[in-house]
Write a structure and sequence with these properties.
317 residues; alpha/beta; Rossmann fold; 2 domains; seven-stranded mixed sheet; three-stranded mixed sheet; 8 helices; 14 strands; 40% helix; rod-shaped
Length: 317
C-alpha cells in the first residue's frame, strides 16, 4: 500500500479492515488532502467520510481533491460561536487554536496569521453526517484543544471503532495525552498502541482487533511511501505526481506561448508586407492615373491640331 501519513498511521489502521472493505472516517484537523494525510489511502480505495479543517487554503484543496467527501470548515469544541485560529503559514499542519503555541512558533521564525473560525461540537458533526451509519475510524490532530473536542462528543451514540490521536506536543516529544486520555477510557475505549507520535484507541466492543497492534509497520505491510515537494516560503506542499503535472502544464503553457508569439510575429510581418504592397499598388495606380490623364491631354491636343489642319486644307482648296 502507498502510505501518505506522517508516521504510517494509515498502515496501522488499514490492518483493521478486510481488503476491499469500503468504510467511513471522520478526519478532524484534516489539513491537506494528500500531504501527511491519514485518510488519502482510504479515499483512493472507495472509502468516504467527513474532513473537518479550519483553514480556507486547505479547504480549497479538499474540495478539489476530495469531491466525494464532506468537507467542513470549523474548529471542533464545546463552546458556541467562533474562535481565533492561528495559521502557521509556512507549516499549516501546525496551525492551532492556542495563542501561546502560535506565539512560540512565531518566535522560532514561523509566520502566523489569525482567522476567526466558527466552532462546531463533535456530537453536532456526527449527528449531521453520520446519523444513519457508523464511523469506522476517527483521526484527531488539532494541535491543542483536544480536551474541549472530546468533551463535545456523544460517545454513547457515536462510537468510532478506532481512534488515532496525536499525543505529543508540537515539534516535541513530551506527551500531552494525560490531559484528555481519561475522557476516552471513561467512555469505553482502550489504548492499544503508541507509535511515538500518536495514541491508538479501540472501542471495547472491538478490543479483539488489538491483535493487529502487536508489531510496528514493516515489510509484511508492503509499504510504499508517497513523496512530496514543499514550497518553503508559502508552506504549500504537493504530492510528487502533482508536481510533475504542474511542471508539464507549465512547459505546455510556455510552448503554447512561444508558438503564439512566433505566429504573431509572422502575422505582423505579413501585415506589414501587405501594407507595403498596398502602398506600392496605390503609388503605381497614381502614376498610371497621371499617365492616362497626360495621354488623354496629348490625344485631345492631337485631335484639336488635326481639326485645325483639316480646316485649313479645306479653305485652301
Amino acid at each position: 500500500m502507498i502510505s501518505y501519513a506522517q508516521n504510517f498511521e494509515d498502515v496501522m489502521l488499514a490492518r483493521l479492515f478486510p481488503s476491499g472493505y469500503r468504510g467511513t472516517y471522520l478526519d478532524i484537523g484534516a489539513a491537506d488532502p494528500v500531504y501527511l494525510s491519514v485518510t488519502k489511502h482510504f479515499y483512493d480505495r472507495g472509502w468516504r467520510g467527513v474532513n473537518v479543517e479550519p483553514l480556507s487554503r486547505c479547504q480549497r484543496r479538499l474540495s478539489l481533491l476530495r469531491p466525494q467527501d464532506i468537507n467542513v470548515q470549523a474548529v471542533v469544541g464545546s463552546a458556541a460561536g467562533s474562535c481565533r485560529f492561528y495559521e502557521i503559514v509556512d507549516y499549516p499542519e501546525n496551525s492551532t487554536v492556542l495563542e501561546s503555541l502560535a506565539r512560540k512558533l512565531e518566535k522560532q521564525g514561523h509566520s502566523v496569521k489569525v482567522h476567526e473560525i466558527p466552532i462546531m461540537r463533535l456530537d453536532e458533526i456526527c449527528a449531521r453526517h453520520f446519523d444513519a451509519r457508523g464511523i469506522d475510524f476517527m483521526k484527531i490532530d488539532v494541535e491543542g484543544g483536544e480536551t474541549e473536542l472530546l468533551m463535545s462528543g456523544d460517545w454513547e451514540r457515536f462510537r468510532p471503532r478506532a481512534l488515532v490521536m496525536e499525543a505529543v506536543e508540537v515539534n516535541g516529544r513530551k506527551r500531552v495525552s494525560d490531559e484528555w486520555e481519561h475522557i476516552l477510557t471513561g467512555n469505553g475505549y482502550s489504548k492499544v498502541w503508541f507509535d511515538g507520535l500518536n495514541d491508538f484507541f479501540l472501542r471495547d466492543e472491538d478490543i479483539e482487533l488489538k491483535k493487529h497492534f502487536v508489531f510496528p509497520p514493516g515489510a509484511f505491510d508492503e509499504i510504499e511511501t508517497a513523496r512530496y515537494v514543499r514550497r518553503e516560503k508559502s508552506g504549500d506542499v504537493f504530492f510528487d505526481a502533482e508536481g510533475d503535472i504542474i511542471h508539464e502544464l507549465q512547459d505546455e503553457r510556455d510552448a503554447i506561448d512561444a508558438d503564439r508569439r512566433a505566429k504573431q510575429a509572422v502575422i505582423d510581418r505579413l501585415t506589414k508586407e501587405r501594407a507595403d504592397i498596398e502602398a506600392d499598388r496605390c503609388a503605381k495606380q497614381a502614376v498610371i492615373d497621371r499617365l492616362i490623364l497626360e495621354r488623354d491631354a496629348i490625344d485631345a491636343d492631337r485631335h484639336a491640331k488635326q481639326d485645325v489642319i483639316d480646316r485649313l486644307l479645306q479653305q485652301r482648296q
